[in-house]
Specification:
The chain has 299 residues and is an alpha/beta fold. It folds into two domains: 137 residues, HUPs (Rossmann fold, 3-Layer(aba) Sandwich), CATH 3.40.50.620; 136 residues, Rossmann fold.
Length: 299
């Protein structure tokens, strides 16, 4: 009896970001010979629709047929590009976040566009994507629509802070770099102790060189063992005196994938989605993977 093979699951709507998410998910699934599952959600209307404004049954039928056609066309295109890729699709009704989170329970990863096709696409990050990242039970990759003049992307970047969730992100990033045959940039950003831990009494004077040395030790301890597990991955280690969000978004500006853990060591660690991962998601211009725990596979 064979075991369950998890799928790469991707949310699909009519947005440019969703189309980019499907392309990213298909490549990820094909690279590791996993099935791909396309999910289109028919959400309830944002505002109640009065029956006198139209025939609700007819509107529902139109939306279902349009959604089914969207899925069928995506499956046909993927069959041409990835003829050996197993692709399935499903159309579901309900709140998009709730359905995507449910899909994440058995997924190898969940891929979503940074913005949907709804009324709030002017936000830096769509509310569906942000809530899904916070609640999903597997790693989530958030993919923005590519800019018209976007330069070619290369490499994998990962944020490192010494926490357990950072270790999970590191493993995900190493495996991603190995599968993609890309170099890995590991970034550990640190700020002045008084800024990073304001709740802890600290001396007014401290030795920046000593703090920098301690931060390099944190990085070395975090990286221990990964080079042996992934000897094919070329690694660039960077320990920088900067806030984590700008440091990571700058390092990952042209990366194929930027990987962060869902929470870190800082004062915001009690939040469901950490301040660093939240900030990176809002400001990154390329695909971002948020890893909550130890993933089975990555890339």
């Amino acid at each position: 009896m064979t075991g369950h093979v998890p799928s790469v699951v991707v949310g699909l709507d009519w947005s440019d970001a969703a189309r980019a998410a499907v392309e990213h998910a298909a490549e990820a699934a094909a690279n590791r010979r996993l099935p791909l599952r396309l999910v289109h959600v028919l959400e309830p209307p944002l505002y109640p629709v009065r029956p006198t404004l139209g025939r609700i049954h007819d509107l529902d039928l139109v939306l279902r047929k349009a959604g089914q056609r969207l899925l069928e066309e995506a499956v046909d295109v993927l069959g041409l590009v990835y003829p050996e890729l197993s692709v399935t699709s499903c159309l579901k009704r309900g709140p998009a976040v709730e359905i995507l989170v449910e899909e994440s329970r058995d997924a190898e990863r969940l891929v979503v566009g940074s913005h949907g096709a709804g009324a709030f696409t002017e936000l830096l990050l769509g509310s569906t994507a942000l809530q899904t990242v916070s609640l999903a039970r597997c790693p989530v990759v958030v993919v923005p629509a590519p800019a018209p003049d976007e330069l070619p992307r290369s490499g994998v970047v990962v944020g490192v802070d010494g926490s357990a969730r950072s270790a999970a992100a590191l493993r995900f990033a190493f495996e991603a770099a190995s599968v993609l045959s890309e170099p890995l940039v590991a970034v550990h950003a640190w700020t002045d102790p008084a800024l990073s831990a304001p709740q802890v009494p600290l001396p007014l004077v401290y030795d920046p060189a000593l703090v920098a040395h301690e931060e390099r030790l944190v990085m070395a301890e975090s990286m221990a063992g990964f080079a042996e597990d992934y000897p094919d991955v070329k690694v660039d280690i960077r320990v920088v005196h900067d806030h984590a969000v700008p440091a990571l978004t700058a390092a990952g500006a042209l990366a194929r994938l930027l990987v962060v853990g869902s929470r870190g060591r800082g004062s915001m660690g009690a939040l469901f989605l950490g301040s660093v991962s939240h900030g990176v998601l809002h400001h990154a211009r390329g695909p971002v993977a948020v890893v909550h725990g130890q993933p089975a596979r990555a890339g």
